[in-house]
Amino acid sequence: MDVVLNVFGATAAPVVAIVAVDYYIFRKRKFSLDDIYKTHGKYYYWNGFNPAAMIAYVIGTAVAVIFMDYGFFISLAVTPIIVDKEVTMEQAKECAVDCTLNFLRALQLHFGDLDRIKQFVKMTVFVACDHDFKLQPEVGDACTGLLKELYGEERGVPARSSIGQAALPYGFPVEIEVMVEYE
């Protein structure tokens, strides 16, 4: 079983490294949400294939397999970001607002016009936190506050749950799931 986990870590670690370096160093924590959804946006590579990333992946996997016994160093780099530990409450609220703006942009690209949204029905806000953190609803308030400001109380305030999680994908501190009714 240890070998299976080590091989999995050795193959997954380069992917995490490529994504982290691309986002934090090359894109300087900025990306174009429009281009993510465009067929030939700036995130589209040669025939949908990024040769530089594939070469980096192969080299990273080879190094990780060779030094498999030191895989715990890799796990230190991808530990989750916990609200109220590595991220302040204000930063968590900013992340929640960013998530809201991201899903609004995705909805706009999908529907063509945000006026087609009749109402926001349900929202679940996931917050990466320790078991003793009890302020998940305050993080969620940042999302619903923005929607209320943009769409009013009737259309913009959904039923909402705010849930604490031990970890979220890619170490993000906040993730939002939303359900909308549209025309």
Protein topology:
Elements lengths: L1 H25 L6 H5 L13 H16 L4 H7 L11 H23 L5 E12 L7 H21 L2 E7 L8 E9 L1
Parallel strand pairs: 1-2
Antiparallel strand pairs: 1-3
Short description:
The protein has 183 residues and is α+β, with helices and mostly antiparallel strands. Helices cover 53% and strands 15% of the residues. The chain is globular.
Folded structure, characterized:
The protein has 183 residues and is of the alpha+beta class. The chain is built from six helices and three strands. Strands 2-1-3 form a three-stranded mixed beta sheet. Helix 1 (2-26) packs across helix 3. The longest helix has 25 residues, at 2-26.
Gyration radius (Cα, Å) is: 19 Å
Strand composition percent: 15-25%
Low-confidence stretches: 72-79
Count of helical regions: 6
Principal-axis shape: globular
List keywords for this structure.
183 residues, 3-stranded mixed sheet
